[in-house]
Amino acid sequence: MFNKILNIVKFEGEKDMSQTKKFIMTYEGVKKLEEELEYLKTVKRKEITEKIKVALGYGDLSENSEYDEAKNDQAFTEGRIIQLENMLKNAVVVDESEIPKDKVSVGSIVKVMDYDFDEEVEYSIVGSAEADPMNFKISNESPVGSALLGKKVGDVVEVAVPNGVSKFEVLEIRRD
């Protein structure tokens, strides 16, 4: 039974390796991830190591919440480092000189009329690894981002969103 499970795991792992996800990113997005990775490796790791040393000084590890917290922080940080390294290794950087000026694409800044709220909104279309909806950076894979891709000024799109259907008109397309 164990060998059967092991073979399934190996097979699934091999399949995943051959179909590695590529992360479409802007140059700024890559730079931001590189900075975060550098911080985690050079600063955060040292801070965590120091916290673990201090917590070990408290003695009995079975009831040492400081130690548990530091180890959890270490696990989270190491996981994030692996995630960032994977994203950077598989990043496909958008060549800004190739971004069309008349069509929405990754790297575009697009102003739209949001008919649901009767207001103009400006979105940056970015890859999923650098999306930040709170700052109006939407992923090219999100419902709104993918619906806007390839559209021109004057085009109107209807997008299925979690609470229904939203309607947007492209008002302006630019790049920075």
Structural write-up:
Belongs to the GreA/GreB family. This is Transcription elongation factor GreA. Strand 6 and strand 7 form a beta hairpin. It is elongated, with a radius of gyration of 22 Å. 44% of the residues lie in helices and 23% in strands. It has helices at 2-18, 27-56, 65-89, 143-148, and strands at 23-25, 91-93, 109-114, 119-126, 137-139, 156-161, 164-174. It has four helices and seven strands, in the order H-E-H-H-E-E-E-E-H-E-E. It has a five-stranded mixed β-sheet with strand order 5-4-3-7-6. Strands 1-2 form a two-stranded parallel ribbon. The longest helix has 30 residues, at 27-56. It has two domains: 23-93, Transcription elongation factor, GreA/GreB, N-terminal domain (Helix Hairpins); 103-174, Transcription elongation factor, GreA/GreB, C-terminal domain (Chitinase A, domain 3, Roll). It is α/β, with parallel strands linked by helices and 176 residues long.
Order of helices and strands: HEHHEEEEHEE
User: DSSP helix count?
Assistant: 4
Q: What's the total number of strands?
A: 7
How much of the sequence lies in strands comes to 15-25%
Secondary structure category: alpha/beta
Q: Helical amount among residues, as a percent range?
A: 40-55%
Strand order of the largest sheet: 5-4-3-7-6
Report the mean per-residue pLDDT as an integer: 86
Spans of 5+ residues with little confidence (pLDDT < 50)?
Answer: 1-18
CATH class of the largest domain: Alpha Beta
Q: Name the CATH homologous superfamily of the largest domain.
A: Transcription elongation factor, GreA/GreB, C-terminal domain
CATH architecture of the largest domain: Roll
